[in-house]
Design goal:
The chain is built from five helices and seven strands. It is 31% helix and 28% strand.
């Protein structure tokens, strides 16, 4: 499995927002959606504030592939759902969202720190050419 470089993790993890374009069944990219991104260790995560019924989340489930752009980095990625039973990971993701975006206040952060959004957490993994 490919891993993010240290520079990519720093650039994307420190970026305020990330643009995510998922791939359609025919391989073409959907229109990018702007969202928050968090770094937990050597992993990057995004959440759908509308839960598993959110339009971009449903689109990401088509091929589990796409492209992200943030912090000057553009990367082809795969999307992996985060195990909803892994409360330790989800608690850490919640903590990073609260810390990174605290200036927006609890009501706004609550849009991504709730059970429905936790269930729609996607881990971003870079695709690398061999």
């Amino acid at each position: 499995m490919a891993a993010w470089t240290s520079d990519e993790l720093t650039a994307i993890g420190e970026a305020e927002e990330l643009d995510l374009a998922s791939r359609r069944a025919d391989g073409s990219l959907r229109r990018p959606v702007t969202m928050w991104v968090v770094r937990v260790g050597d992993d990057l995560y995004v959440r759908c504030m509308n839960g598993r019924a959110g339009a971009w989340y449903l689109g990401a489930q088509t091929r589990h592939q796409g492209r992200v752009t943030a912090g000057g980095v553009a990367a082809e990625v795969t999307f992996a759902d985060t195990d909803p039973g892994d409360t330790a990971v989800h608690d850490r993701i919640d903590e990073v969202y609260r810390t990174k975006y605290r200036r927006y206040g609890a009501n706004i952060i609550g849009g991504v720190v709730n059970p429905a959004s936790r269930a729609a957490t996607i881990k971003l993994t870079p695709e690398r050419s061999s």
